[in-house]
Design brief:
Layout lengths: L5 E5 L4 H12 L3 E6 L14 E4 L5 H10 L4 E4 L6 H6 L1 H21 L4 E5 L24 H20 L2 E7 L1 E3 L17 H9 L6 E4 L11 E6 H14 L5 E5 L4 E3 H12 L5 E4 L8 E2 L4 H7 L8 H14 L4 H8 L1
Catalytic activity: UDP-alpha-D-glucose = UDP-alpha-D-galactose
InterPro entries: Epimerase_deHydtase, NAD(P)-bd_dom_sf, UDP_G4E
Cofactor: NAD(+)
Length: about 325
């Protein structure tokens, strides 16, 4: 690389953040990870990256980081991110996610950094009028989590208008899969994402997988969702850096193809060779039959294309990582002892 950049990655020890860190390092950039490890894992941070364990709620910690390094851009992943939890404790999300992001935006502006890439969400679109969901869809957040992300997008809008901080907001639904290097993958506690939950059922770590309703207006009666490989998300985050040379951007991200809950279960059984016990339960309030994000605009503008678009590739990588790390990142920690 002829022009390596120095990038601050908040939440860089988390799932999507750690894959973005890996992509940045692979392309020759210098990376500083800022993470409080509430949801992230120290073992997910590669030794090539500098690591600062601190919280965005601490403005002094942010000031020290910006004083120590001169950053070319900030990638912002750090957030509370469980939709169901946000419905039970909306204040934690509406206050916590927003205030910590405002702290980061202010520190970024005061340090003279003029590029910020923000991990937003397609949960901005709680009542979409059409599928796939494109950037022209009316914003109507489906949860306090989605609302907090929209509040941050608006703060970034005004940071651009008032201070010239250009931002890229990337909205996506279901990140999935694991890095091909086999070192990093998905490890949440508690786990709420469908693919790792089904993999756990296939591995005998949970007695069954529950399908929440099988009477939707879809081909097999179960909800259809858009799954996008986490490395494809990381690639999109890097591509928008060049776009920020000219203007702020907002992009929806998805494969453009949806897979039902039963299709995910069938794929897991096919890839693992193990049966997945299934229990059908009642619908969950608020679940829509189909959610698919359009990515036509970023494909057209930046030439982004998913490198791992197929469900089998996504699940296969996730299964390989879980087989190699049966206790998640605790497997790595024990190996290092």
């Amino acid at each position: 690389m002829t022009n390596p950049k120095t990038i601050l990655v908040t939440g860089g020890a988390g799932y999507v953040g750690s894959h973005c860190v890996a992509e940045l390092l692979d392309r020759g950039h210098r990376v500083v990870v800022f993470d409080n490890l509430r949801q992230g894992h120290a073992a997910a941070v590669p030794p090539e990256a500098a690591f600062v364990q601190a919280d965005l709620a601490d403005p002094e910690a942010l000031a020290r980081v910006f004083a120590q390094w001169r950053f070319d851009a900030v990638f912002h992943f750090a957030a509370l991110s469980v939709v169901g939890e946000s419905m039970r404790d909306p204040h934690a999300y509406l206050h916590g996610n927003t205030v910590t992001s405002l702290n980061l935006i202010r520190a970024t502006v005061e340090a003279g950094v003029r590029k910020l890439v923000f991990s937003s969400t397609a949960n901005l679109f709680g009542s979409p009028s059409r599928m796939p969901i494109d950037e022209d869809e009316a914003i109507d957040p489906g949860s306090p989590y989605g609302e907090s992300k929209f509040m941050i997008e608006r703060a970034l809008h005004w940071a651009d208008r008032c201070h010239g901080l250009r931002s890229a907001c990337l909205r996506y639904f279901n990140a999935a899969g694991a890095h091909p290097n086999g070192r990093i993958g998905e490890d949440h506690s508690p786990e709420t994402h469908l693919i790792p939950l089904v993999l756990d059922a296939a591995a005998g770590k949970r007695p069954h997988i529950e399908i929440f309703g099988d009477d939707y207006a879809t081909p097999d009666g179960t909800c259809v969702r858009d799954y996008i490989h986490v490395c494809d998300l990381a690639d999109a985050h890097l591509r928008v850096l060049d776009a920020l040379e000219e203007r702020s951007v907002r992009y929806n991200l998805g494969n453009g193809t949806g897979y039902s809950v039963r299709e995910v279960i069938d794929a897991v059984e096919r890839i693992t060779g193990n049966r997945v016990p299934v229990v059908v339960g009642p619908r969950r309030p608020g679940d829509l039959p189909v959610l698919i994000a359009s990515s036509e605009r970023i494909r057209r503008d930046l030439g982004w294309q998913p490198r791992f678009p197929g469900l089998d590739a996504i699940i296969g990588g996730a299964w390989a990582w879980r087989c190699a790390h049966p206790q998640g990142y605790r497997t790595l920690a024990k190996a290092a002892e």
